[in-house]
Amino acid sequence: MPNQYPLTLLLLSLLLLVTSAQAETNVEGDYILILDSNTPNREGLDPSFNIPPSSPLDPVLNYLPDTLTYQPSVNVDKGTTDLRQRIINGYTMPELNSNYTGTHEAWYVSRPDYMKRMIGRSQRYLYHIVVEVEKRGMPSEIALLPMVESAFNPVANSRSKASGIWQFMPATGKNFGLKQDWWVDNRRDVTAATSAALTYLQKLHGMFGNWDLALAAYNAGEGTVQRAIDRNRKKGLPTDYASLSLPEETKNYVPKLQAIKNIMRKPEVYGLNIDNIPNRPYFTKVIAPDQIDAKLAASLAEISYEEFISLNPEYNRPVITKTGSAHEILLPISAANTFNLNLANYDKPLVSWQTYHTKRGERMDKIAQKFGINVSQLRDVNDIPNGKKLNSAQAILVPTNSKNNDIATININSSQASSFNESTNNSQLKTHTIKAKQTLASIGRDYHVSVKRLMSFNQLENPNVKIGQVINIPASDIKNQSSPETKIEKPLEKSTVTTGNFKKISKKNKRTAKHAYSSKKKRSDKPLQRLTNKAA
């Protein structure tokens, strides 16, 4: 018996560790791991966020929002102190009566901790989204859609490669101006992705005429919804959302939003307690240096690194760099002045990373040893999987040499993913819709682009494509046909062929006598060359 007591304690400890993290899912059923916060329902929010608005300590008193042109619904109440009530007052979408809705209500009600974490995370972003929704005159419940998409997890990634709180697919993100390269993925940029998502939803609403169908198209694609409508029209059936034959996930999509609307409206009816959400901005934009370590930026703002990443999740590297006309970062309103003041008084290097071009045959462990960094960390920073070898002259990020006190030089054009950089040039972006019997190889031949480049440009794991799939086409490879991808075989030795010696020549060149004689007839005065293009 005495020996069982330590074992019981060990089992209880393991159980507590397991329950400190929960696997959540987005609308596609993809699992998202969310760690519990030490402050339930607040997710480590900036403490000043809960200062009463009338307090002289309120940092929002010094906050000057962008000039807005509002076109809000009649019921919008910007004066309420509870953002949740402001959203409820702006509900304008018709109520959806569906058996699916009750199923999702029961799912949420049975997971009160999940609801707390989701609403806690949302408080960083929800005010901004509500304001943007109101500016466009859209139903306020659209602001709750990230609860369906990602549970407001800013770094959520699905198996289908959707990313961010709005779960943009790579190609859709590019079509709506969300840059994706080695340095940033703006599908995770809270403000940029929100603007793109609302623009996309407005476009879909214009196509289909109501919000239920617009939301269905946001989930399944406009083509899927339009084909379902066309099928029903041919059969003389209704074409509303509930009457369409849609994928199972899409059938659950709008009811899931309806379930969230119902719970947010009257949580007490469902046995839930939802705290007031302050009706105030949480973050503001701050101009940052062209290049600065993310951890240093957090330190200068006097906030945790986790808080910094939750507001700036789009950065892929430990050093954040300017990739547009202005380098703006998001900070809690109370930290903005702190950041500017500390930055002005900071006299040390802002960057502790530099670009390093690898040498032929150089190994990761040797590079890591040279720059005093763990191999696994070096691979993680540069997105180089275990076991993958380096290319010759490949550009990677490494720490600055400890003996060098100069500011490190980061060459943003030397990143590994140059194909990503070119893909963001929307003025040259072409798209192609896959037709019957087409393959990436045949499309590549038509556009003079290699299959490998097409796959990299569209972030495809394999060359398989489906009819109706839309892919992006990079600039033509036609100027690069003399690149290393083009192999030139060594010409055969030139010989003068006569009827008396063609057997001797053919033996020397390891060809049949007939072939040698044919060469004499066709090109006895020219070396035989054959071009083999691997890109075909």
Given the helix and strand composition, which structural class is it? mainly alpha
> Any low-confidence stretches, pLDDT <50, length ≥5?
1-42, 58-74, 402-408, 415-428, 479-536
User: What is the CA-atom radius of gyration, in angstroms?
Assistant: 30 Å
Q: Tell me, what's the shape? A: globular
- Oligomeric state: single chain
In DSSP terms (H or I, runs of 4 or more residues), the helix count works out at 21
Give the neighbour order of strands across the main sheet: 1-2
Approximately how much beta-strand content do the residues carry?
Answer: 5-15%
Arithmetic mean of pLDDT: 77
What distance separates the N and C termini?
73 Å
The percent range for helix content is 25-40%
Number of strands: 12
Biggest sheet statistics: 2 strands, antiparallel
Task: Report what the structure shows.
It is a single chain. The protein has 536 residues and is mainly alpha-helical. The protein contains 21 helices and twelve strands. The chain has helices spanning 4-19, 83-89, 99-109, 112-122, 126-135, 145-149, 170-175, 190-208, 211-220, 222-235, 248-265, 294-301, 305-311, 333-344, 364-371, 375-381, 418-423, 440-447, 451-457, 502-508, 513-523, and strands at 21-25, 31-35, 283-287, 291-293, 319-321, 328-332, 353-357, 395-399, 430-433, 470-473, 486-488, 531-533. Helix 5 packs parallel to helix 8 (190-208), helix 8 (190-208) packs across helix 9 and helix 12 (294-301) crosses helix 13 (305-311). The longest helix has 19 residues, at 190-208.
